[in-house]
Structure formats: C-alpha cells, structure tokens
Amino acid sequence: MDTITPNRSKTDLRTWSKPALIGFLALLAAVWAGLYFLNENIWVPILGDWIGLDLESRVGGSIEFFIYDSLKILLLLAGMIFAIGLLRTALDPDRVRSFLEGKSLLVALLLAAALGAVTPFCSCSSIPLFIGFVAAGVPIAVTLTFLIASPLINEVAFVMLLQSFGWEVTAGYVVAGFTIAIVAGFAFSRFNLTSQVEEFVYRTPVSQLEEGTTKITLAGRINFAREDTREIFGRVWKWVLIGVAIGAVIHGWIPTEFFAAYAGPDNPFAVLLAVIIGVPLYFNAAGVIPIAAELWDKGMALGTVMAFMMATVALSLPEFILLKRILKPKLLFAFFGVVAAGIIVVGFIFNFAMA
C-alpha cells in the first residue's frame, strides 16, 4: 500500500516561505477558476458560430456535450482531489486504530464511513488500505465499512453527482451510501470474523510516515496533494472520457421513450436488472456517473439509476477476484450479498419515493 510521505513531488517546496506558499495556492485557485469560467462560456460560440456545427442536431449536440462535460468534470476532479489531498497527509492505519480505541461501535462505523468518504479510491484500489487497517488491528467489521464507503462516497463521486444531478439527488445518494456501509458493518460486527481473513493479512507490515515524521509542513502538504492529484487524476481521466462519450451517445441518439418504457418506476425488475448489469461493467465513479446522468435524463427511474451506479462502483468482478485472495469464501460471498441487498433496497426506496 502507499506510504504517506511529506516530500513525494520532484519539486521541493521546503525552501519556500509560508507567504510564498500561500501565494502559490492562491494562484492555483485563480487559474482553476479562470479555466472553469472559460469552459462554461466558450464552446457554444466556438462550435456553433466559428466552426458552424448545428448544436441542435444529434452530432453537434453530442460533440458539444462531450467536450463541455469532459473538461468540466476533469477540472472539478483536479480541484477537489488537490484540496482533499491537503487534508489527507496524516492518514495512517496505526493512527486510525489508536483513534478508534475506546469508541463505541456506532461511532467507529461512522468514522470508518467518513474516512471512506475522503479517500478517493475505486473498489479495487481501496483493498491495500483495507489490508493495512486489518494488519494494524482495526476491527474487521469496521474495516469492511470503510471498504464499502470508499468507492461509493468520495470527493470524486460527490463532485460529479453534484454537477450532474444537483444537491437533492447528491444528498440522497450520499445518505444511502453511508447507510449501506454502516448497516453492513453493524451486521458483520455480530460475528467473529477473524478466521474469515487469510493469515498473511495479519502479518502485513503497516506503513508509517517516513523517518518518524509526526507533523507535515505546508510545503509537505502541497507536495503531497500535488502528487496525489497527479496519481489519482492519472487513474481516472480515461474513465471520465469513456463515461462522457457513452453519455454523449445516449444524449444524442437513444430516444427518451426507450428508457421510460423499459426502466421506469413501473417495472418491478428494473432495479434488480440494473444491479446485475452494473457488477460486470467495473466503472469507477468518474466513468459511470456521466452515463447514469444521461440514463436519468432519458427517463430511467432515479432508484434504478442509483442502483446501477452503486453496483458498478461498489461491486465488481475485479474486486471479487482481489478480495478472494484476502477473504475466505464465506465472508466474501456474505460481503457481496449484503452490499447487493442494500443497493437493491435503496433502489426500490427511491423509486417508491419518486413515484
């Protein structure tokens, strides 16, 4: 798993004064805001007036949708990942275990879900941190809560949901994700799961801050956040483009009546089918949310859309294969079954509420 180091970037900012570092952050914020403003305002005149595309046509509308949405999402992701990276420099499994000691189960589960919300990992890339927590002595049920929450609720998902669905749907999704993670963690806490994890996990070394570092300077935080942004952005940008491209095709070419007829709230099997379809796709939030937004816009019921998104990011065949190496079959199938059941229930609840 990754180690947290205060000087991960090639450019060393430790020689900079604190005012210079603050000025650097202000400049980054100004550049980001300027790019975001440009993206909001330039594509209609460029594509429509200068190039002459008919933005009301299927082709023109799909091209404008793809360029605008891709850049907007990428800008939002880069800004949010960098900001969260500034706050994530003290994350260490041993410290997490020490912090959880003496806390009630409910508080521990809430904290594990919250930690998952600020770690922008897909279901597969959160597994190394899961191993580190178990090796450090964090209770398995609490660690499973983190494993569920991390891909479902993170800054990537939050920013993209907010941009695509608005505040109300985003809040509902976040609450639903937290609920699934916490309820699942509580259910697993009723059992002794120690024997259901492979022995090598308990012998895995736990990462520490390099050279016993206990406090990271502002320069170290910026270096870490910059490298964090480069690494995470490098993993997800292609999924953003793929997801937006699929969304653009749906936007321009698939009729609204298709989804309203076959995946609307009147179809009792739509939620279950969405979960079954979602699992083998293995998109992370960056890839699936643009697709989901277009499905919703075309008439798919909100609960079905949520179930599709959650199943795609929280349950996947690659994750199953990786978890098979660290969880024994009984716990592995129980984990997938409990999470899938929670997602299906959430889908039905939202479809019923929106009917």
Q: Briefly note the structural class of the backbone.
A: mainly alpha
Give the helix proportion (percent range).
Answer: over 70%
Global shape: flat
Query: What Rg do the Cα atoms give?
Result: 21 Å
Strand content: under 5%
Major sheet: none
Number of helices: 17
Polypeptide structure, described:
This protein has 355 residues and is mainly α. The protein has a domain at 18-90 and 217-240. The protein contains 17 helices and no strands. α4 crosses α6, α14 (285-297) runs antiparallel to α15 (302-314) and α15 packs antiparallel against α17 (329-354). The protein is flat, with a radius of gyration of 21 Å. It starts with 17 loop residues before the first helix and ends with a helix. Residues 1-9 and 206-214 have low confidence and may be disordered.
Helix-strand layout with pairing:
Blueprint: H1 18-41, H2 43-50, H3 58-87, H4 93-100, H5 105-117, H6 127-136, H7 140-152, H8 155-165, H9 167-188, H10 199-202, H11 218-253, H12 256-262, H13 270-281, H14 285-297, H15 302-314, H16 317-323, H17 329-354
Helix pairs in contact: 1-3, 2-3, 3-8, 3-11, 4-6, 5-7, 5-9, 6-7, 7-9, 8-9, 8-14, 9-17, 11-14, 13-15, 14-15, 15-17
Summary tags:
355 residues; mainly alpha; disordered N terminus
Summarize the structure.
The protein has 355 residues and is mostly helical. It contains 17 helices and no strands.
